[in-house]
Amino acid sequence: MSDELLNLKDVKKYFGLRGAPWRKAQSVRAVDGVNLVVRKGETVGLVGESGSGKSTLARVATRLLDPTQGRVEIGGTDVTRLRGRRLRPIRRQIQMVFQDPQASLNPRQSVGTILSTPYRAQGIRPTRAQLVELLEQVGLAEQHLERYPHEFSGGQRQRIGIARALAMKPGLLVCDEPVSALDVSVQAQVLNLLADLRDELGLSYVLVAHDLAVVRQVADRIAVMYLGTIVEEGPAAQVYEAPAHPYTKALLSAVPVPEPGVSRDRIVLTGDVPTPINPPSGCPFRTRCYKAEDVCATERPVLEPVQGSTEHRAACYFPEPPTSERKQ
Prior knowledge:
By secondary structure, the chain is of the alpha/beta class. Helices cover 26% and strands 24% of the residues. The protein has a domain at 243-328. The chain has helices at residues 54-61, 111-121, 128-137, 154-166, 184-201, 212-218, 236-241, 246-253, 323-327; strands at residues 4-17, 26-39, 43-47, 69-74, 77-78, 94-97, 172-176, 204-209, 221-226, 229-235, 304-306, 309-314. InterPro entries: AAA+_ATPase, ABC_transp_ATP-bind, ABC_transporter-like_ATP-bd, ABC_transporter-like_CS, Oligopep_ABC_C, P-loop_NTPase. Residues 6-252 form the ABC transporter domain. Pfam families: ABC_tran, oligo_HPY.
């Protein structure tokens, strides 16, 4: 039996734009040909700038959005075209934790009602003991069941969102920037909670984030997105210590070093991010890349192994050299 919990194959998601009848129809290419596999017990960090398509990909992966093209497999089952009742059993295997803990909770419902919703959607009537167990798993208590979202802090609200996602005992959680709306001290608490739940319940995660430091703390593998595509993927240690794609290297150069007197050589990218309505030909990053040449405009590079590693791949014609070569 395969250990693949999620398998995205050449997934694309385009959003049509409405305009005047005499104008040519246009589409926003939010996700443009992504392949990604998440296995049991693995935490995959999905990183990139705002607008790179991370959140859209997360929603397609959980089937909150229909893909325009490609294939979505959850637990080995093709769920690309499933809807309604046929999709309901799949919801038990994969759940989502949303970015804004305040917007994702119904302000008119008590915590007990919010936690009961996944059960009712599956035709189950939960007991109070089940709801209390969910709260205790995320560090809250039974007396919180009768309270409403506005009575909690941001960190507590996000814990409630995590508890709701755990109700059906899924194997995979897709977390869409789960700590970006929280204070720094609270971010660490929520990330530690996710790590503890992973060890205790055997969970796997897709952790969407734009903060590379956050992802590095918990991720086993990193996938870097730019303009709807994955430009680099590999084990977290290899991606952080020896980034192969120029875009990844530029992102890491912007991360502050938490040591007085120590700094990185900053790489400042020129130009603006191209529009996903009309992306560049060839490599999507070539218009801002400091290593771009004519070949980059002809055909899009594919993810290929770099630095002698079969697991570390980059979509670049001129990848960065291994760390040992850089020091020479």
